[in-house]
Specification:
- It contains four helices and no strands.
- The chain is about 75% helix and about 0% strand.
Length: about 100
């Protein structure tokens, strides 16, 4: 069975790994986890660090733009479906089948 760790614990271990006062092996032994896990958490923390100072409104603006684009695409697909159904109906009326 896999053991799960909360975010606060992962951050604590990763920060200690970044500080470099202890080796990965020593940290792993101290917290009873595998050394590879320590290095993975350290890597994830360093890769995600650029988002810490990002303005929250900027992120929301990007999400809003993405949602607007998604809604626009759904509307277009819906419109095309209605047009396609209309043309199929007219084709059946004139030719008697959908070939």
């Amino acid at each position: 069975m896999r053991k799960t760790y909360d975010t606060a614990f992962k951050v604590k271990v990763a920060i200690e790994a970044i500080k470099g006062h202890m080796t990965l092996g020593e940290l792993a032994q101290k917290y009873q986890i595998h050394p590879v896990q320590v290095s993975q958490w350290k890597k994830q923390l360093l890769e995600g660090a650029d988002g810490v100072f990002e303005r929250p409104n900027k992120k929301r603006a990007l999400e809003r733009k993405s949602e607007e684009e998604h809604d626009r695409l759904l509307k277009t697909v819906g419109q095309l479906k209605v047009e396609n159904d209309f043309l199929k109906k007219k084709h059946r009326e004139y030719y008697g089948s959908e070939s």
